[in-house]
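FORM 7B: Structural annotation worksheet

SECTION A. Query
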Amino acid sequence: MRTYSILMGLALLLSVNILMADVRLPQIFANGMVLQRNQPIAVWGWADPGEQVTVTLNNQQKQATAGADGTWKLALSNEQAGGPFELVVKGKNTVTLSDVLIGEVWVCSGQSNMQWTVGNSNNAEQEVASANYPQIRQVEIPRITSGVPLDDVSQSLEWKEANPQNVGNFTAVGYFYARELYKDLNVPIGLINTSWGGTIVETWISKEALEKDKSLTKAAHAFEQVPADTVRKNTDPNRYPTLLFNAMINPLIPYTIKGAIWYQGESNAGRAYEYRKSFPMMIKDWRKRWGQGDFPFYFVQLASFKAAGGTSATGSTWAELREAQHMTLSLPRTGEAVIVDIGNTDDIHPRNKQDVGKRLAAVAMHDSYGREVVYSGPEYKKYKVSGDQVTVQFDHVHSGLTTHGSGEVVGFEIAGADQHFYPAKARIEGETIVLSSPSVAKPKAVRYAWADDPGTSNLFNNDGFPAVPFRTDKWTPATKDAVYELK
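SECTION B. Predicted structure
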């Protein structure tokens, strides 16, 4: 009996050693994956301490040695778009991944309007049936929370092709974005869908980044006082800060990407003024941790929606959030898709995700891929007051100003020193708009599309892009004093 116990113990030790010896990759490395072209390709994983690991892709081979903690990492040399290839990782065991493509990889993140699927979008039946893009692929990251940064996700991931069987569950914004890129670039497009409806921006930011800001560090430190078991059992992504960075972003780093697209902000509208700080903080945080420099980061400005019915008169949190988003363009290699014209007054989830994808893709084609395309609508440049009239000049007029729907220009307001805004009579004069109101004798400020639901605002350029909402005044925002606090 004693001999049997000894043999069983040896067998158990041997099995543990075999398990420990297995070279392992992060779950995002899977059959059918898309790797980033024309950039060093990060490959990493786990093995026995000191174990030699060899990685082979196409015609190149690189080696790494696992450190004392069992982690290893290497960078494959740049590859041109192509495939399918095999990615082979060999240590004491061998892992072979097949059907690997090389092209453009984009992270798709945010809240419900990024999570929103093709199957729930306009013309869903036709879109699903006509999806025949085997080189557009999505991997969806599980929606979980974590109180500490995770090295990997806990379940197997699958890269799926854009076909009628799969595409209905793709992120709609991501898919329509990828489809536009594919039509022009004709290279594989990989989408990493890491999104969760209803989430606030603070849950997507690392604790270290939050701690560097004096107004947010309180929440970060308060989070540390919460019992670990309480954090582990929590399933509300907004209950504490940094939960989704830990569980849905950190495990992806440093997977080589081209950039990110982002659709979020509805859940931060009540703290729009603070979003001027928190949103750029998140972008800089991701860029720093990925270690790829200022990778492209393109985002969707909030659509029109009734929300709380806010206006210039009552204060509009959604208008202020759009302003905060637009201000984020001060960061390098950022871009914005304006969609105030395609929202739905009664639904926070507009079904027209096709135009959202197209407008994001126009930004990418211009900024990331060097195409000479129009990518923005008219953007406020400056104004001049002459008597009771105001003349507004714009950038991105391109082939001229026009209106959609009614021939009358709708959506402008002007105010005098009393800060009371009145609808303005507006007319197009060349590349300018001339405004006036019988209620404002001495105009001091102009606003355009400044409301939660500015869906009737109708200024466009002739290239089909809507004018960017704006205000010329610096008067105190309604959300000036609203700050993030733990629930």
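SECTION C. Observations
Residues 19-100 form a domain with the Immunoglobulin-like fold (CATH 2.60.40.10). The chain has eleven helices and 23 strands.

SECTION D. Sign-off
Analyst initials: ____
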